[in-house]
Design a protein that fits this description.
Blueprint lengths: L4 E10 L2 E10 L2 E7 L2 E8 L4 H11 L9 E7 L2 E6 L15 E3 H13 L2 H6 L3 E7 L5 E6 L2 H14 L7 E5 L5 H9 L4 E4 L5 H9 L3 E7 L2 E6 L4 E3 L1
Parallel strand pairs: 3-6, 7-14, 10-11, 11-12
Antiparallel strand pairs: 1-2, 3-4, 5-6, 8-9, 8-10, 12-13
């Protein structure tokens, strides 16, 4: 079974001197996704949570809206085939978002995220993401070599576990680019935060969807790029 970390022998240069030393690096694997027999995309990712990666990608890309949209999924030998129902569910209920989230709650999530980045601590080669359901306090976090993959994996796992995304917040280690923010908004998550910064188009996506967007989170403060339906209680 492939492991997320590989041990190698590598040349290390220190103070002009070369030596052969053991290094631990991230392992990269590939997965091709076919939807209704058509190739959709190919993932380069960290092994583990393969099915959750696919579920998260389908939801965060706006391809599906519920688990019932998937008629069949088969995953084997680096290939994943998904059959999507052509009929979409009609949603009639208005979505209600939490009125506020405290900075202390965000810092609590930040601690959970950083404490569970074991692969990154060893290799410095992984991104992390965490999704927390605010009313229950339950959360899930994972790592991956790609920040998009880490986001899709936590979304996919929580999607399968029945988390209420409209009552959740997403925290990640990577930049808040437009496509990352779009993943959160497509999933109906009202609060997206990061330990790093946002781009201008990331901010635009957040404003268009009335999403609360927070970046550069530390114990001392953060950047509040956009305050949407869920207010930040400081």
């Amino acid at each position: 079974m492939t492991e997320p970390i590989t041990d190698i022998q590598c040349i290390k240069i220190k103070e002009g001197v070369r030596s052969i030393e053991e290094e631990r690096i991230a392992t990269e694997v590939e997965l091709t996704l076919k939807i209704n027999e058509q190739i959709e995309t190919q993932f380069s990712y960290s092994v583990g949570l393969d099915e959750q990666l696919v579920y998260g990608y389908l939801l965060s890309s706006g391809i599906i809206e519920s688990l019932n949209d998937i008629e069949r999924i088969e995953l084997e030998n680096g290939q994943c085939s998904v059959t999507i129902s052509k009929e979409k569910e009609i949603k009639s209920e208005a979505i209600k978002f939490p009125s506020s989230i405290s900075l202390d709650r965000l810092l609590e999530a930040k601690e959970s995220l950083t404490n569970n980045q074991q692969n990154h601590k060893v290799t410095r080669g992984f991104h992390g993401a965490l999704l927390m359901e605010l009313s229950s306090g339950r959360w899930f976090t994972c790592e991956d070599i790609g920040r998009h993959n880490a986001v899709d994996k936590v979304i996919g796992y929580c999607f399968q576990q029945g988390y209420s995304f409209s009552d959740s917040m997403l925290l990640l280690t990577g930049r808040l680019t437009s496509n990352i923010v779009q993943k959160g908004t497509n999933s109906g998550i009202p609060v997206i935060a990061s330990l790093t910064v946002a781009t201008d188009k990331g901010m635009t996506k957040a404003k268009e969807s009335n999403t609360t967007l927070i970046g550069a989170m530390t114990e001392d403060g953060c950047w509040l790029y956009n305050e949407g339906a869920t207010k930040l209680d400081t």
